[in-house]
Input
Amino acid sequence: MEVSVGSGDKNHKMMEDLLPSAKALRGEIPEVYKGFSELSKAAMADGVIPATVKEALAIAISVINRCDGCIASHARAAAIKGTTKEEVAEAIGVAILLSGGPGTVYGPRAYEAFLEYKAEYDAKRQQKRPEA
Output
């Protein structure tokens, strides 16, 4: 059974709200953004640790850092890559262990963000499947 929580598109809206400022800053320091993008691609690619697990780790680290933008970004990437809700929940559990009380606030935010994006990308994958 799929569980959904939260307000539906809160994380989508937050990312949209951040976009103009991010584009403006990227225009001022394009090489920094280019370097960060390359680092991100290298770090998050499939390797010994699958990309799906890396995204669950990134969500947990985002919880510990209390970064809503990071949470939304990695929740989206995890949903796109097919990370399971169980993987995300367990990674958030580790974040709660290591961050204490703040993890119990940001952990649910992260889980909500993941479920928001997961619902969207599951629907898109379902639409791409040929009729049986």
User: Anything to note?
Assistant: The helical segments are 10-28, 30-44, 51-65, 68-81, 85-99, 101-128. The chain has a mean pLDDT of 92. The chain has one domain: 10-124.
